[in-house]
């Protein structure tokens, strides 16, 4: 199936990798369902691509009922779902000793349960179609733990386990599974870090193109995976800036 035939749902579509992916797919003629809390940002993408077929769904990925409604809206408008890109996530990093328990819970709710909500919502449709593709954004922090990143890394290790389990469980239904594993990327994700000094350090890092990728560079790899042949499953994409070692 060509990109311009695919119906693609994207969470976290209001900024960063999600928005960049949406714009690339809109240019390719894909039918898009853009999901995020900030509806104004989604509307801006829709206005930028007036010829594209875009459905806007303003919701929080932690709300499973709202996710189910978005899936039904997608079926009603487009008749099928070919791709879900689980991209919503937050990263309010801090040392464990600081006990930011509310931040930990929010990370678990969005980074893990948000992914499970998306999978659970679209899987019945994809199983009925006997086709589909689910991609989820993880992180190099899902392979290696860094000080201050313990809980965030835990959510991304969980995502990798969930997605590999999904791959094995749904392979015979021809549902593909892709883990998107970027290194440092210049996005708004770092704005969720509570410590001002840590945020400032990340901002400085993003100014070096050899140590930080653009969201569009990652989006290009996501679109490559989405556009892969039906019998090819790209299980994981690891993409880092050239000077990032870990």
UniProtKB/TrEMBL annotation:
Pfam families referenced in this protein's UniProt entry, alphabetically: adh_short
Annotated SMART domains: PKS_KR
Gene3D superfamilies listed in its UniProt record: NAD(P)-binding Rossmann-like Domain
Location of the Ketoreductase domain: 6-168
Keywords: Oxidoreductase
GO molecular function (one): oxidoreductase activity, acting on the CH-OH group of donors, NAD or NADP as acceptor
Source taxon at top rank: Bacteria
PANTHER family tied to this protein: DEHYDROGENASE/REDUCTASE SDR FAMILY MEMBER 11 (PTHR43115), DEHYDROGENASE_REDUCTASE SDR FAMILY MEMBER 11 (PTHR43115:SF4)
UniProt family annotation: Belongs to the short-chain dehydrogenases/reductases (SDR) family.
Name the UniProt record assigns to this protein: Ketoreductase domain-containing protein
Source organism per UniProt: Companilactobacillus farciminis
